[in-house]
Amino acid sequence: MLRFIVKRIGYMILTLFIVITMTFFLIHSIPGDPLAHLAKKLPEQVKLNYYAKYGLDRPVIEQYGMFMKNLVQGDLGTSLVYPGRSVTKIIKEYAPVSGRIGIQSIVIGFSLGIVLGIVAALKRNKWPDYVVMFLAIIGISVPSFVLANLLQYIFTVKFTILPTTGWGSFEYTILPTIAMSFTSLATYARYMRANCLDVIGQDYILTAQSKGVSKINLVTKHVIRNAILPVITLLGPQIAMIFVGSFVIESIFSIPGLGRYFVSSVQDRDFSMVLGQTVFMASLYIVALVAVDIIYSLVDPRIRINGGKR
């Protein structure tokens, strides 16, 4: 296990290096001057000083070397659009907001999706199965922003139970969390139902039934343990996307999260913000995938990692 983890960390570093390098040269290949609209009214000498401050007066390959050197030291640079604000500080300030909504939505979507998927599989072709599949179709078909607007109308306009917009106590997170979790809930329910039905049809399940294993033990120790593994695979990418995927929800509910910075930085060609958030998102994504591999072996002891191979 230790050898496997060390090897995966090496892959993580290599992958992160490739992602950062590609992002750096891609963002610099976009035509236009990122500071043109900010420095066009400044005196020529002040403009030159402005470019020199951000290293934009140097060749791209030299800028790349400067960025990698600062990155190793933990410095993600300063935002071009928000002068004086470091990228690291912006991420530390706004990432927890997006993370809170995202983690709550993952916990709710994953847990309820697993339960509903199991119920649908065990009650196949009965009314619980039809209800779960109906909810799954609605969850996948209806965009999150439509659901968010519907929730706002019902719980803030029609009945005035929860706040419409803003950020503060736990009650401000309820509607955004529901809006974000509904799609993942539907996805997990569908996957879990399909996996459970596949496992139930296996020979070892029929053997266990013939030996008189109780239904509870059969479901908990055999069906769920084997059916949940493919579903866990979905967790890795979803964890990494909680900061980007919440952009629309953050806009609707006026939540001061990181999602809006991610989109606006690309539009504004804020090199430092784009690269800084790329480092953050890519690191989170890669770590999540490694964590999923480790969870595999914890969920199912039959999985053994030997020399980096499963």
From TrEMBL:
GO cellular component annotations of the record: plasma membrane
Keyword Ion transport listed: no
GO aspect biological process, one term: transmembrane transport
Membrane-spanning parts: 9-30, 101-122, 134-155, 167-188, 227-255, 275-299
Keyword Transmembrane (UniProt): yes
Membrane topology summary: Multi-pass membrane protein
Domain ABC transmembrane type-1: 95-296
Family: Belongs to the binding-protein-dependent transport system permease family.
Alphabetical UniProt keywords: Cell membrane, Membrane, Transmembrane, Transmembrane helix, Transport
Localization (cell): Cell membrane
Protein's name according to its UniProt entry: Oligopeptide transport system permease protein
Principal subcellular localisation of the protein: membrane
Domain of life of the organism encoding this protein: Bacteria
